Model the fold of this input.
Amino acid sequence: RLRNSPLKESLYCIRCGACLNACPVFRELSGHAYIGRDGSIAPYPGPIGSVVSPGLLGENFVHLAQASSLCGACKDACPVDIDLPKMLTRVRAGKSMDEGKRKEGAGLSSITKLGLQMYTLIATRPRLFAASQKFAALGSVLFSPLSQWMRLPGFTGWGPSRDFPRFARKTFRERFRPAIAGNTEFAISKIEERRTSDYAQNEIDNVGQFTKELTALSGHVYLAKDPTQEVIQFLKDRGISRIHLEPGLLNEALLQRSGIEFTHETDPSILAGVTKAICGLADTGSVLVADGVGRPLHASLLTEIHIAVLDKSNILPSLPQAMKLPQLQKAKAAVFITGPSRTADIEMTLTIGVHGPKEIHVFVDDSKPG
Done:
């Protein structure tokens, strides 16, 4: 049954138990907490059990796949490199069940499904989403009129240890609109404005500061007189022969002569993506990537290694200068990337590459004088 299903990778398991010891959910709950809907104990606990049990024994154990934060600790610990987060998402998508019974959101309660459906309905309609933000802001003021924080009741499970900030009265678009209208006095915040003035007064070397900040976040920065040649050398050193490339960024003829294949379309089998960075931020070591021809956002998110080519003259002191760039104002989607993808929300254990690239390498184009 497993061998002919999308969960067949779980058969690589050697039963070492490494994923169980690495899983924060298993360590908190122990194996006896993994039970079926009928109350029977699952024969296989932990992350691998949440895949194998529904795969072998059916719908009674499908909900176990929801008991995971998809932090990736199990995949890192697995000696045979089973991609357990991917397997768990497949179980959630109903792929552990027979073809006729498959349905997305397997294991979710009816209330949770209803909540997700309502959110989808609102989030996919811009006007409705904007209206919901206004109602949320009004509701949070009524809930907590004297404080900027909403203290939730203890029965929610969140109240005793966490406070929730009130929703903003203005949406991001409303706050961003003055910049689009050409308001040169537009500021992201007083803190950012103070940082900007400090940079101007002290005449900090933007390139040096950018390098320092990104390196501190496990990123890599290279000054490149010939970005194409240096990217080729980097790829050869890493044994990479195929990349996702943003069109018009590098010398494509030179790439082909060097034996580097490239595509401008999304391909999950590609290890490295090369994109143009519209600008860099010296105070945070961030690079700005905007969507466009060749799907650069996909190249910067779906690959394990993100390579960004950044013009030296486009390294700016801080965020307020970047917000005034016409490329950003006209972009349908854009993202500031600061170091490799990382999360530490599970037991404060830092995990790299869970939600995006494990590495980021920025080649600063130093070929232009000045």
